[in-house]
Specification:
The structure holds 2 protein chains of 2 kinds. Helices cover about 20% and strands about 20% of the residues of chain A. In chain A, strands 5-10-6-7-8-9 form a 6-stranded antiparallel β-sheet. The radius of gyration of chain A is 19 Å and the shape is globular. The termini of chain A are far apart. In chain B, strands 1, 10, 11, 13, 14 and 15 form a 6-stranded mixed β-sheet that branches. In chain B, strands 2-3-4-5-6-7 form a 6-stranded antiparallel β-sheet. A 3-stranded antiparallel β-sheet of chain B has the order 8-9-12, with no helix packed on it. The radius of gyration of chain B is 16 Å and the shape is globular. The N and C termini of chain B lie far apart (about 45 Å). Classes of the chains: A alpha+beta, B mainly beta. Chains A and B meet through helix 4 and helix 5 of A and strand 6 and strand 8 of B.
Chain lengths: ~200, ~220
């Protein structure tokens, strides 16, 4: 009996441990499947794609989420890739929404499923510089729906333009605030530049 | 002669008898060996001022960033076997820039720079290594760049390359921009750096692995 109790206690302790396994959680359900090449790439479809990622959370260096409208692992330590939580980060969300390729020389037009864990080779600063064949800088005054505003540390896409100086921006913002649509004044913020993606078909 | 320079001379001189083939540096010349490690390659490094670098630095900075870096800002220039870089801080010291050297596969940036990164500091330390996987070397291999924050008392940062250790000197209180063409996974936007750190006398302090991902 004593031995049984000891084993029971040990088993309970092991099952309750959250050490090493704690940071290998959401990504365990993500996949590496190939993207689907699409001949069309419309701004409407990009809006739908980004809109569907709302409420799915934020993960530094991430690019994997489901569609249950809940951040499975909110409030992880910021700037920590190893937490492996749900959601994209700002550049990961943009990469997937813009149907980009992991090869910077290619146009892409790849539809990445939500659970495909991919971030892409660009951080916000690279997007800001217009790096990569599919990307380019645009004048902020002309930035329209599904163009983006990028600084050295953040990028958000224009969901709708506003009449009052700001824009409704869809963005993966932070661990605490997740991915959502926010009113922002990036258009008039000198830290931000306008960025676009070539090749929209509508 | 300053103690640091004297120390370097001693370390390099000690390496002369250690054998091993000298590796060519990216911009000509051969890498000296780091005395503490047989067959190592010491990256050429120096501290300059922004104003003295002219277009070499200005061609890397975006127009919107040019006012955020003082003209007299110290800039660490490094030339290694497969990579070269510039590292400098903004006027507040809370942000670190790096210009990464190599070929831009997308053909958008002329040599020498293929990438530029910006990292935020929190309490004096970078939030993450700011990995860049968008450069290629002359052989077409992907070259990954990342920042290393030296541990306390570390003066030399060794990065394990294929068959040798490439050694970088920590300078000007800035994080050390290191490069590797090994263990780079472009498709997954990640790279692994095998790091060994040494104190000023060349004594090994710590070994660690940095698994870096493109983020933010």
């Amino acid at each position: 009996m004593r031995r049984f109790v000891a084993m029971l206690v040990l088993g309970l302790a092991l099952s309750a441990s959250t050490g090493a396994q704690a940071y290998h959680r959401f990504w365990a359900g993500c996949n590496t499947e190939a993207p689907t090449f699409m001949t069309t790439m419309t701004r409407d479809a990009a809006q739908d794609y980004a809109n569907a990622a709302r409420y799915e959370g934020y993960q530094w260096g991430g690019g994997c989420w489901n569609y249950d409208d809940v951040d499975s692992y909110p409030n992880d330590p910021p700037s920590e890739v190893g937490t492996h939580g749900e959601g994209g980060d700002c550049s990961g969300l943009t990469f997937k929404t813009w149907r980009e390729s992991t090869d910077t020389t290619r146009d892409g037009r790849y539809y990445w499923r939500a659970l495909r864990n991919v971030h892409g080779p660009y951080d916000a600063a690279a997007f800001r510089a217009g790096s990569g064949a599919p990307n380019h800088t645009v004048a902020k005054s002309t930035a329209g729906v599904m163009d983006a505003f990028a600084s050295n540390t953040h990028i958000g896409m224009v969901f709708t333009r506003s009449l009052y100086g700001g824009d409704q921006i869809v963005e993966a913002k932070c661990e605490a605030c997740g991915t959502n649509i926010f009113y922002r004044t990036y258009r008039s913020d000198s830290a931000y530049g306008g960025v676009g993606r070539w090749g929209w078909t509508g | 002669m300053k103690p640091a320079v004297l120390l370097l001379v001693v370390l390099v001189a000690a390496a002369c008898g250690s054998g091993g083939r000298a590796r060519p540096l990216l911009r000509g010349g051969s890498a000296q060996a780091f005395g503490a490690v047989r067959g190592s390659a010491l990256t050429a490094a120096r501290v300059l001022r922004r104003a003295s670098l002219g277009t070499r630095l200005e061609s890397c900075l975006l127009r919107g960033d040019r006012t955020s870096v003082p003209a007299d800002a110290p800039v660490v220039e490094r030339v290694g076997v497969d990579g070269e870089s510039l590292t400098f801080a903004d006027s507040t010291g809370s942000g670190i820039y790096a210009c990464d050297g190599g070929l831009d596969p997308a053909g958008e940036r002329p040599l020498p720079w293929c990438g530029r990164v910006f990292g935020e500091r929190d309490h004096g330390r970078l939030l993450d290594p700011r990995l860049d996987v968008n450069c290629r070397d002359r052989r077409g291999r992907a070259v990954a760049y990342a920042f290393v924050e030296p541990v306390a008392d570390a003066r030399w940062i060794g990065v394990q390359q294929k068959g040798y250790l490439e050694v970088y000197e920590a300078l000007a209180g800035l994080p050390v921009r290191v490069a590797t063409a090994e263990a780079v996974e472009v498709e997954e936007a990640r790279a692994t750096f095998e790091i060994t750190e040494y104190d000023a006398a060349g004594h090994e302090l710590v070994q660690r692995e940095i698994q870096a991902r493109v983020a933010g």
